[in-house]
Amino acid sequence: MTEHLAVEGGTLAYDVDGTGPLVVLAPGMGDSRDAYRFVAPQLVAAGYRVATVDLRGAGESSTGWASYTRTDTAGDLLALVRHLGGPAVLVGHSFSGGAVTIAAAQAPDLVRGMVELAPFTRKQTVTLRGLRAKRYRKGMTRLLMTALLGSVSWWHQYLDVAYPGTKPADWEEQLRRNAAMLEEPGRMKALQRMGSSAPTDAGDQLEHVRCPALVVMGSLDPDWPDPRAEGEAVVAAMSPGTGRLAVLEGAGHYPHTQLPDETVALLLPFLEAHARG
Question: Among 121, 223, 256, 276, which one is least packed by beta carbons within 10 Å?
């Protein structure tokens, strides 16, 4: 059942299920909390209280926010954790991977651990060498066209590359739901503004993270020429011993939706070790 939390500038839509230590799941830009539809039930069954939240401007959250940065989203997530009586383990995908980094650095009393799924947490640099990677070149071209044109069609062409090989069983329905969301007033604009927000605010906070961190990358993620190298760089920017990297072979940019069982198999040991304080 959808609930709403009023914060400065708008309202956030979320739902909560289960009992036990709190885990908050945040999707990436252009997506809704439905992205965790395969993961959340497994975490609930494993004994966790699981909240999935729509980012500002997406899903059932309100539109028309003044700003759409990772720092803004970090504040939203911390507001939700406080509202739900945290602390919590935060799980953030892509754009939200940077947001949970900021939240963990800013409020260590509220964040027991964080998981970054295919995170945009560092400043990105496009190089000629990187552009030689066909998958990366293809993905970046489609993202650029989405940003320039505000086009659902281009976004879905990007998603086709971002889910290499295996697609979710409800793929066509997923695309239909996503198109319906993005065609609502203000939602594509939110995606565009998030896409234009540099992750430097998150990168500046990596060294200040003190809670345990897990970075999960897909080996076929088109958002980087070398996904493993990007994950290693994120972990290296943290204090020694803070983070560790796991790479899911065959996964693209959405491991939690494309390979949910494999993703849960990484999440559960991390939660068992850190979610209970």
Answer: 276
pLDDT in tens, 174-195: 999 999 999 999 999 999 999 9
Tell me the CB-side half-sphere exposure of residue 187, using CA atoms within 13 A. Answer: 21
Long-range contacts of 200-203 (CB under 8 A, 24+ apart): 200/123, 201/69, 201/70, 201/71, 201/98, 201/102, 202/70, 202/97, 202/98, 202/99, 202/101, 202/102, 202/119, 202/120, 202/121, 202/122, 203/98, 203/121, 203/122, 203/123, 203/237
Q: Could you report the per-residue pLDDT of 85-101, keeping only the tens digit for each?
A: 989 999 999 999 999 99
Q: Which domain holds residue 8?
A: 3-274
Tokens read off for 57 = 């401007």
The CATH number assigned to the domain holding 249 equals 3.40.50.1820
* Domain total in the chain: 1
